[in-house]
Amino acid sequence: MLRMKCSFIIIWIVFFIFSLNPCYLLAQKEEKIDPDVFFQDFEEFISIIKEIQNKYVDEVGLRTLLMNAYKGMLAGLDPYSQFIDSQNLKELKIETEGEFDGLGIEVVIKNGFLTVLTPIVDSPAFHAGVYIGDVIIKIDGKSTKNISIPEAIEMLRGKTHTKVTITVVREGESEPVDITIERAKIHLNSTRGTRIVDEEGKIGYIAVTSFQDNTIDDLDVAVKELQKQGMESLVLDLRFNPGGLLNIAVGMADKFIKKGLIVSTKGRHKSQHHEYKAHRSKTYKKFPLIILVNNGSASASEIVAGAVKDHKRGLLLGTKTFGKGSVQSLIPITNKNSALKLTTAKYYTPSGTLIDGIGIEPDIKVDLTQEEVRGLHRHLARVNAADIRTKNGKEPIETNDEKEKFVDAQLARAINILKSKSDNSETN
């Protein structure tokens, strides 16, 4: 009976592998893998399942073992590939629409540790003082060692008004810090802080916080509003922007670049080789442009920054970007209401530069100290809160902190450059 059960498992797993990848047989032929070796490896896998089911201290169902195996397989590939079960798949779809319950942080596995890529501006995590690069070593007292991204998200997410405590270790510090955060409804407003930041130079400012379905429309509205106010040049702030949808990043770059390549993707197979080009009809009227970036600018942000830099359409100012330049495809699993989020290609800037694991260097480097970064967090949170109150027809609340004027060194440098270049030669 046990032999029959194991044989059924082998047949089921082989069928599962074939169904995941239509190119599987072709790939096996190209790589000239010995079928005998292939099935020997599967026999080892089945032997492990059998030993666990027979001898583990608690009874474990086959479905649980297989689910854990899928998660382990994907986690072992890179920090971004994941097995997504039905619950997490539903949350992923909700997140791309721009609203979900949680803390408002993007996390990755970096050097084996659960690391904050960036906190979303004005989120509970942002207000609680979670910073870029914080290593989360515990969640509610439970170690994050060997944790997967889906497991971490499941622990961090939760109903609005519930609390979670994360223990973080910060760069340059040895003592862990406990941060208790109350979860809230996260609204991913694509743009914030739209305003004229220098009346004399008619310099506009727009911060883009994410690349979601509505981002291009939000950007159009913001640019038109600034143009009505006489905007002659623009600072586009992509700091703390973890990215989002590829097509939205291409669409945003298309707004600034009239023609030519925006980004290309390359994978193992020709089907994953794509070139995304600009369309003249969608481009804004040309104006001097500076894009602010930092190590929290990732993925889609890097596509826009790389395209603008390579086409010399504007200047990048700040610090080197994160270096997340890979394409994740969502591959549904038939009849299981689950999916693979699988890295299938990598991004290349128009000049052919690989983004992944490297990042993009700014044209003008303006470093910030840790204290300046924390001050910037507090400042952006105040500005965003005031922006929201103004949109709702309410007067901004002045705090004691605001009486001590914070100087955003990177924004100030961008404004000075735009003001000093009357011929705009460096930003055209």
TrEMBL record:
The keyword Lipid metabolism does not apply. One of its GO terms (molecular function) is serine-type peptidase activity. Residues 89-157 form the PDZ domain. Pfam families: PDZ_6, Peptidase_S41. Keywords: Hydrolase, Protease, Serine protease. InterPro entries: ClpP/crotonase-like_dom_sf, PDZ, PDZ_6, PDZ_sf, Peptidase_S41A, Tail-specific_protease. CDD domains: cpPDZ_CPP-like, Peptidase_S41_CPP. The keyword Protease applies. One of its GO terms (cellular component) is outer membrane-bounded periplasmic space. SMART domains: PDZ (SM00228), TSPc (SM00245). GO terms for biological process: proteolysis; signal transduction. Belongs to the peptidase S41A family. This is Periplasmic protease. It comes from Candidatus Scalindua japonica. The lineage of its organism: Bacteria, Pseudomonadati, Planctomycetota, Candidatus Brocadiia, Candidatus Brocadiales.
